[in-house]
């Protein structure tokens, strides 16, 4: 009140008062700004749209620190344009819902769309881990497409994404068709997808993450697929190929599904009733805390999609089936394809201890198996998409490096 009174009495006094500065940030980004308020350079990719209003003289500094918890105009670092800003193709070329084995299936495509023919008869196809939500792999696959300039597709797991209301395709009831969403059902789902949508005589490059590597190892045993097209290379990233229930994460999963699955599904029913911005805010806040920093928007969107009762039931149903079915190491498809197979293991992987890497190198010494020395996590799509994309590109460019000239 004293300030207002002084302003009314003397406009000159009012003009000498400090100017008010505001920080305009979407609600769902508040956790990122709060947690990282003293480490601004680490959050610039997620708050590049922040608008700082000030009538003070704008000066630039190089430290980029926040003062008093609010960024002034002279302390905000210069933002680098994101892929979405510079028009370089952050989003996939096409986002399609198709039918595969009777299940609504989402396919993201960079380069040639799924319903278009022509161009180089080469394709990089990614098989997700669990959960098999396509958007988790958006940044990773975008970088592969940029580097190689060949069509890149990623296909969701059956039942792991719910189609929007304007799509006429549906997800069959898991109680009526339980086999659709098991590990064997996911292998059949990928076989039917490849049979229906991948053109004949295609040079196919398969990239599998986690349980997606096991799915690919089963695909490689299918004679009908091998006669119709050529699998030029297969890449397994953090592969789960044996004794999953004996791993630290496997034991934790069994415990939590036994005692907490029902409450998790119940909470997801509550979650889906929230407005979209509240769901995004809650997910972002949780990821900032669990990951120790900001995450990309595509990770937030994917996690919002994950927290749905139908999706969670199918995800956990598949995971429990994995604990039972993935035990003994199936060496045959690895040996049969060793000369065109690359494997990347983590050195701190709760799903695949380094002893499993040792087993692979002993049983199949001719396979190109690499043990990570960078500390990348099993769920690399959250923090290390760019780095893992570079590794995959190095393996593929010997075959695909000359595609740009074709």
Automatic annotation (TrEMBL):
InterPro entries associated with the record: AB_hydrolase_fold, LDAH
Enzyme Commission number(s) from the entry: 3.1.1.13
Gene3D superfamilies in alphabetical order: alpha/beta hydrolase (3.40.50.1820)
Catalytic activity annotation: a cholesterol ester + H2O = cholesterol + a fatty acid + H(+)
Broad class of enzyme this protein falls into: hydrolase
Cell division in keyword set: no
Main localization, broad class: other
Transmembrane segments: 259-278
Matching Pfam families: LIDHydrolase
Keywords: Hydrolase, Lipid droplet, Membrane, Transmembrane, Transmembrane helix
One MF annotation (Gene Ontology) recorded for this entry: sterol ester esterase activity
GO cellular component: lipid droplet
SUPFAM superfamilies: alpha/beta-Hydrolases
One biological process term in Gene Ontology: lipid storage
Subcellular location: Lipid droplet
Family, per entry: Belongs to the AB hydrolase superfamily. LDAH family.
Full protein name: Lipid droplet-associated hydrolase
């Amino acid at each position: 009140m004293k300030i207002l009174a002084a302003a009314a009495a003397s406009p000159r006094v009012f003009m000498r008062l400090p100017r008010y500065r505001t920080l305009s940030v979407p609600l769902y980004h508040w956790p990122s700004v709060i947690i990282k308020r003293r480490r601004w350079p680490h959050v610039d990719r997620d708050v590049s749209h922040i608008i700082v209003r000030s009538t003070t003289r704008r000066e630039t500094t190089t430290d980029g620190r926040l003062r008093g918890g609010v960024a002034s105009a002279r302390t905000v670092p210069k933002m680098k344009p994101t892929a979405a800003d510079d028009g370089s193709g952050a989003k996939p070329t096409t986002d399609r819902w198709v039918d595969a084995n009777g299940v609504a299936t989402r396919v993201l495509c960079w380069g040639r769309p799924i319903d278009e023919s022509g161009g180089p008869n080469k394709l990089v196809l990614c098989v997700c881990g669990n959960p098999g939500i396509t958007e988790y792999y958006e940044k990773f696959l975008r970088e592969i497409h940029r580097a190689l300039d060949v069509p890149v597709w990623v296909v969701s797991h059956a039942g792991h994404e719910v189609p929007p209301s304007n799509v006429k395709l549906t997800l069959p009831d898991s109680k009526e068709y339980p086999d659709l969403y098991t590990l064997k059902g996911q292998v059949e789902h990928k076989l039917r997808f490849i049979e229906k949508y991948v053109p004949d005589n295609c040079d196919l490059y398969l990239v599998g993450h986690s349980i997606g590597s096991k799915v690919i190892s089963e695909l490689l045993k299918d004679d009908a697929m091998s006669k119709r097209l050529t699998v030029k290379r297969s890449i397994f990233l953090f592969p789960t190929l044996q004794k999953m229930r004996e791993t630290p994460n496997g034991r934790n999963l069994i415990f939590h599904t036994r005692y907490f699955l029902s409450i998790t599904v119940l909470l997801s029913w509550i979650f889906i009733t929230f407005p979209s911005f509240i769901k995004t805010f809650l997910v972002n806040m949780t990821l900032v805390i669990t990951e120790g920093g900001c995450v990309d928007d595509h990770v937030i969107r994917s996690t919002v999609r994950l927290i749905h009762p139908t999706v969670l039931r199918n995800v956990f149903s598949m995971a429990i089936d994995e604990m039972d079915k993935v035990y003994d190491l199936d060496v045959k498809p690895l040996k049969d394809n060793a000369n065109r197979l690359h494997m990347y293991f983590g050195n701190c992987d709760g799903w695949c201890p380094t002893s499993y890497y040792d087993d692979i190198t002993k049983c199949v010494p001719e396979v190109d198996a690499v043990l990570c020395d960078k500390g990348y996590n099993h769920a690399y799509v959250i923090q290390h998409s760019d780095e893992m994309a570079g590794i995959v590109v190095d393996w593929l460019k010997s075959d695909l490096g000359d595609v740009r000239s074709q």
